Amino acid sequence: MVLYVYAITAASPSYDLDGLEGVGPGSSPPRTVAAGPVAAVVGDVSEEVRPARRDLLAHQAVQERLMAAGAVLPLRFGHLAPDEDTVREALEAGAEAYLSALERLRDCAEFHVRATQDDEEPLLRRALDEVPGVRDLDARIRAGDPDPRLPLALGELVTRQVQAWQQTTADALVRALEPFARDRVVQEPTGRDFLNLSLLVPDDRADALLETREELDRELGDGAALRFSGPLPPYSFVG
């Protein structure tokens, strides 16, 4: 039997964990293990935890309950410790840093922002209309120029131009959104995304952020759209 560790909180006031299910097979309901001014929320688990949907939801439910009651340092899914003594030792060793982080996150939540290129056609048309090199290569190909290098050159030039426009848009979005946040983390976008941004937003700024989101979404154009998630536990701002 090992411990599944959900989060770190202040030891006082205590958090209501009644009715919450534990993560993993043979799990116990979440409980706290305190060491001085800080505590960890843990539960017993009988074997290795896998990210099954039921367990992911149980993990998230604990984080949301804790976040609704006060500042929390949420741990990502799957964090294990061998026993309570090990947890207490870690809490004692890091108490000052944990308290500082909890204070920084107090009355805040994470909002996750993605800018996604749902439709590339508007940017491709824009490149043909606005970029001389693209127009010239496209005209040569349409005129029957047999040079086999032309399609590749055209594709590379269009890709570079689209990426440049997207980076400019992403930078502008960050500048527009960061005044609402206490902190921000820009991560590498994937897939059709060209912005992957996490914001640590004070509770009293959340409504204004969402209002600005609607304005930015209307202005974005070029086949792009904003995706907002939140309020969420502040995973990106722990540590």
From TrEMBL:
InterPro entries: GvpL/GvpF (IPR009430). Keywords: Gas vesicle. Its main location: other. Transmembrane segments: none annotated. It is found in: Gas vesicle. Belongs to the gas vesicle GvpF/GvpL family. This is GvpL/GvpF family gas vesicle protein. It comes from Streptomyces omiyaensis.
